[in-house]
DNA sequence: CGTACCGTTGAGGTGAGTCAAAGTAAGTGG
DNA sequence: CCACTTACTTTGACTCACCTCAACGGTACG
């Protein structure tokens, strides 16, 4: 899922131009990288650290929908949509972020079909029906949503120690809650449950998972509802 | 939001080629246009009628997420994602649908920057954080979600009679439920409520709305929760 | 050693899901 | 045109997961 901007089959001159126009900035925890409602003029790419994307609806309810990690892009949806930002990006941890202005990107896209294709793919795969629903669908318990989030975060941070997987959460409990469209209290209760059953050990922001397959099983094999839901 | 494939600034020869490769098929209510899990080879465009897009998760829970109306496209996300279809498309009403194969589209996209731009925009605007959450966020009551759905459907079917807006629902109650991530019973109760308060009159699949602004107000001005939800 | 968050726990309330049954359309075939 | 079937819709009673509110325990930091 990661989407670096990498030297592919590009003209060195263009790459140089891309590099020269690129701006790298450092952000501290809590800093906003861009804000919902402002005009999208380019895209951002994380060199290090973590950021959180969240959307605020007309009821002032905030829902986080993506954790952006090292090497990943953000802001592209609004840029290509030729619209204002539909979300706010905020640094979860100190991070370095580079910015690519729209004009340069558009030029490269026109010139190099492969570059365009990569963006088409990124846009198309981003937030398809698949996830999102798994993290926020209310027919799934907070517990299962949490397990799915853990698995998602594990994809990006494979760290093994002594046969068990270890995951360092880059965020607060309330951010986890926002990602699951739940409340911090509910998250705490779900964590307690998983803890007691030995599925995962939580120690502050460090999560230890003894057996990944148990987690995976739980994430995808809850009993289906008995009654179907639509005219399918 | 509608996305016709129209004669823009294209080469007549290419348009001819596009037309010649296009296949138009007729579907009856309930027919599947494409199925989740199958390979996406092109895009579909509705000439008439309505279709419903729904996704089935690993718990066999079905969530509808889009009603496709006249002139709108579907299947493009999976095609550009170079992936299997992430949803199933099914005809809500009898409809005529034309199919454009991928190769032709890709050729046109490479050749005409404006054509590419339109697709970038379509992809980027489709299912951003904005809607979706309004229709399925569990912090919003089924009633408000229903009101939002009505407003969404009204956008495409403006029909005025005697000062009141009239909307003909192209779908069953259970499909509405699937769109709201709710149950048909809950939808029925929400409908009853709106009925009793005179906000909207439901008669089978015909909805009459005396005052649009009341509906609109309700859709966006519910009291915000007292406690914020994340470290924002 | 306060102060200020963050995280956890408990008690209580509620919206919406589940289940079951009755009511209403919409076909279909005689 | 009327039985008859089938599918869709609504209602009521019950249950439960999660939210709300409130209080308490932890940890970091000046």
Protein traits:
homodimer; 232 residues; alpha+beta; four-stranded antiparallel β-sheet; disordered C terminus; DNA-binding
Most extensive chain interface and residues per partner: A-B, 66 and 66 residues
Rg over alpha carbons of chain A: 19 Å
Query: Could you give a short account of the major beta sheet of chain A?
Result: 4 strands, antiparallel
Portion in beta strands of chain A: 15-25%
Mean pLDDT of chain A: 84
User: What is the oligomer described by this structure?
Assistant: homodimer
Question: How many E-type strands of chain A?
Answer: 12
Task: Kindly state the percentage of residues in helix of chain A.
Answer: 25-40%
> What is the rounded distance between the termini of chain A?
31 Å
How is this structure best described in words?
The structure is a homodimer of 232-residue chains. Chain A is α+β, with helices and mostly antiparallel strands and 232 residues long. Chain A is built from 9 helices and 12 strands. In chain A, the strands form 3 sheets. Chain A has a 4-stranded antiparallel sheet with strand order 1-8-3-6. In chain A, strands 2-7-4-5 form a 4-stranded antiparallel sheet. In chain A, a hairpin with a 2-residue loop joins strand 9 (160-161) and strand 10 (164-168). The model of chain A is unreliable at 222-231 (pLDDT under 50). Chain A binds a DNA duplex (30 and 30 nucleotides) through residues 138-139, 141-142, 172-174, 182-189, 191-192, 204, 225-227, 231.
């Amino acid at each position: 899922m990661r989407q670096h901007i990498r030297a592919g089959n590009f003209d060195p001159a263009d790459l140089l131009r891309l590099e020269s126009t690129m701006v790298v900035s450092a952000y501290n925890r809590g800093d906003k990288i861009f804000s919902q409602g402002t005009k999208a003029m380019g895209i951002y790419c994380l060199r290090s650290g973590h950021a959180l994307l969240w959307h605020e609806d007309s009821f002032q309810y905030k829902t986080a929908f993506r954790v952006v990690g090292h090497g990943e892009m953000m802001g592209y949806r609004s840029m290509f949509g030729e619209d204002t930002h539909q979300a706010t990006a905020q640094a979860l941890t100190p991070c370095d972020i580079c910015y690519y202005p729209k004009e340069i990107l558009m030029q490269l896209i026109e010139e190099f079909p492969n570059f365009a294709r990569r963006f088409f793919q990124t846009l198309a795969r981003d937030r398809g029906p698949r996830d999102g629903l798994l993290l926020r669908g209310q027919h799934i318990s907070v517990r299962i949503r949490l397990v799915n989030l853990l698995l998602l975060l594990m994809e990006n941070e494979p760290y093994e120690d002594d046969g068990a997987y270890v995951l360092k959460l880059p965020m607060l409990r309330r951010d986890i809650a926002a990602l699951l469209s739940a409340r911090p209290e509910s998250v705490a209760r779900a964590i307690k449950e998983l803890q007691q059953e030995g599925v995962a050990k939580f120690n502050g922001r460090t999560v230890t998972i003894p057996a990944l397959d148990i987690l995976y099983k739980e994430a995808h094999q809850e009993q289906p509802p008995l009654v179907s839901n639509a005219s399918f």
